[in-house]
Amino acid sequence: MHAKHLLHLLFIAAIMFGAKTMALAQTDQLERNLWFNEEKTAKIKVYKATDGKFYGKIVWLKEPNRDGKPKTDINNPDKARQNDPVMGLLILKGFKKDGEKGYEDGKIYDPTNGKTYSCKMTLDGDVLDVRGYVGFSLLGRTTKWTKAE
């Protein structure tokens, strides 16, 4: 009876381990980490939304305040959005998975200048190459984001 109980516990443990492994396998590698921007002034959390596309928002700022108050999106071209907090700001929008390590057809918003660019990203180990561009990807700039944790 004792050995039967032990086998039952081992079976339950194996199921739990398998469920955790399956859940991790379903999570895209882009979502498993927070990402430092190139200057290491912000951390971005990327997630897959119900539309199947990837989005990213700022979840940490090295300097969260300006003049003693939380930073707001003062450079936003939409005057109605200039009081939106930078913390929690959605800066990556609408990326589709392209192969094993690519993400394309998205947009990136730069709160430092208030501009939105077309964007594609490529995951290379612990580095995420983020290429913002206008028109063609040849006319753009790539920054390297690194795993924050």
Explained architecture:
The chain has 149 residues and is an alpha+beta fold. The protein has two domains: 1-29; 33-147, Lipocalin, CATH 2.40.128. The protein is built from one helix and ten strands, in the order αββββββββββ. It has one helix spanning 2-26, and strands at 34-36, 42-48, 54-61, 65-66, 69-70, 90-98, 102-110, 115-124, 127-133, 140-147. It has an eight-stranded antiparallel barrel with strand order 1-2-3-6-7-8-9-10. Strands 4-5 form a two-stranded antiparallel sheet.
Secondary-structure map:
Elements: H1 2-26, E1 34-36, E2 42-48, E3 54-61, E4 65-66, E5 69-70, E6 90-98, E7 102-110, E8 115-124, E9 127-133, E10 140-147
Antiparallel strand pairs: 1-2, 1-10, 2-3, 3-6, 4-5, 6-7, 7-8, 8-9, 9-10
Please outline what is shown here.
The protein is α+β, with helices and mostly antiparallel strands and 149 residues long. It is 17% helix and 44% strand. It has one helix at 2-26, and strands at residues 34-36, 42-48, 54-61, 65-66, 69-70, 90-98, 102-110, 115-124, 127-133, 140-147.
